[in-house]
Amino acid sequence: MAVYTQVPAEALSAFLARYDVGELVSAKGIAEGVENSNYLVDTTRGRFILTLYEKRVDAGDLPYFMGLLDHLDAKGLSVPPAIKDREGIAIQTLEGRPACLIKFLSGVSLSHPTPAQAEAAARAMADMHIALADFPHDRPNSMGVDSWRPLFQRCGHSLDQIAPGLYDDLGAALDRILTAWPRTGFDRCAIHADLFPDNVLMLGDRVTGLIDFYFASTDIRIYDLAVMHSAWSFDACGATYHAEVGDALLRGYQSRFPLAPHETAAFPLLASGACIRFALSRAFDWLNTPADALVTRKDPLAYVRRLHHYERMSRIA
Ligand SMILES: Nc1ncnc2c1ncn2[C@@H]1O[C@H](COP(=O)(O)OP(=O)(O)O)[C@@H](O)[C@H]1O
Ligand SMILES: N[C@@H](CCOP(=O)(O)O)C(=O)O
């Protein structure tokens, strides 16, 4: 459930009156998502998404995210830019929260992507990277490699409450990954950094939208593909690797943007880093989200199992 801030109809009508979008017809809270409050808003002129940014999105980062979406939209990619009001303002305040009215995109996110769907989604990621090559703004990745040790330390020995031995297991993997992590020599650009299946909208085998850019930041370009590979190529609990989906992702991406030999060689390491990142953020949330909170906690062990898979791989052919 992701509606943390309730918006009364009167306040929403007054908000919409700033825009040329017609009048309010209906507004429904969207259950999916964990970070922000999202509403599906219908007006006399169309359908929109209203997002109110909650604690985890820093309002100071919104101009970067909205600039990135405008950049991709201007190049014809299917992403949802924020609508500007009559004064040209996209980032507003509603019910005390930063808020944007966002273009609605059709499509559904998949729970069990097929190889053909994975291939199309990875092609869309490569097209996004090509389009971002001249995006001029930087944002350090707040969930990037330098955040993993501090996050591990904040979880501390409480990790063993999730699974006995988890503190030692993740600590040893973190040492190996941080020692080997490439600091130079890899192409960097603005990346999505969270392109899970729930952040790709599709109709059949066609990608209709990439959404949820709120972790976008400057980082190693192929790390973005590694995040995607770790999110798409396993069953939900991370125990079974679906090679046909994993191979399709690499094929789709490389149909637009071939990997250089050093990128292929480092792929299992980059994917291990992606797994540590999501294992730790999920573990932190697991340990710090009250059991009666509205939001569903995601299983950190599903990423620990994926981590073990990538650490066993020496390289992807
Ligand atoms: N532009 C959009 N067009 C259509 N649906 C959207 C759009 N943005 C978000 N959604 C819907 O809202 C849900 C939650 O959005 P998301 O950005 O993933 O939230 P959160 O940042 O809270 O994780 C998505 O799964 C999708 O169903
Ligand atoms: N994809 C991350 C959590 C971030 O959630 P999102 O709804 O903003 O994509 C995970 O699965 O741990």
UniProtKB/TrEMBL annotation:
<protein>
    <recommendedName>
        <fullName>Homoserine kinase</fullName>
        <ecNumber>2.7.1.39</ecNumber>
    </recommendedName>
</protein>
<dbReference type="GO" id="GO:0004413">
    <property type="term" value="F:homoserine kinase activity"/>
</dbReference>
<dbReference type="InterPro" id="IPR002575">
    <property type="entry name" value="Aminoglycoside_PTrfase"/>
</dbReference>
<comment type="similarity">
    <text>Belongs to the pseudomonas-type ThrB family.</text>
</comment>
<keyword id="KW-0418">Kinase</keyword>
<dbReference type="GO" id="GO:0005524">
    <property type="term" value="F:ATP binding"/>
</dbReference>
<keyword id="KW-0808">Transferase</keyword>
<dbReference type="InterPro" id="IPR005280">
    <property type="entry name" value="Homoserine_kinase_II"/>
</dbReference>
<keyword id="KW-0028">Amino-acid biosynthesis</keyword>
<keyword id="KW-0791">Threonine biosynthesis</keyword>
<dbReference type="Pfam" id="PF01636">
    <property type="entry name" value="APH"/>
</dbReference>
<keyword id="KW-0067">ATP-binding</keyword>
<keyword id="KW-0547">Nucleotide-binding</keyword>
<dbReference type="InterPro" id="IPR050249">
    <property type="entry name" value="Pseudomonas-type_ThrB"/>
</dbReference>
<dbReference type="GO" id="GO:0009088">
    <property type="term" value="P:threonine biosynthetic process"/>
</dbReference>
<dbReference type="InterPro" id="IPR011009">
    <property type="entry name" value="Kinase-like_dom_sf"/>
</dbReference>
<comment type="pathway">
    <text>Amino-acid biosynthesis; L-threonine biosynthesis; L-threonine from L-aspartate: step 4/5.</text>
</comment>
<feature type="domain" description="Aminoglycoside phosphotransferase">
    <location>
        <begin position="27"/>
        <end position="254"/>
    </location>
</feature>
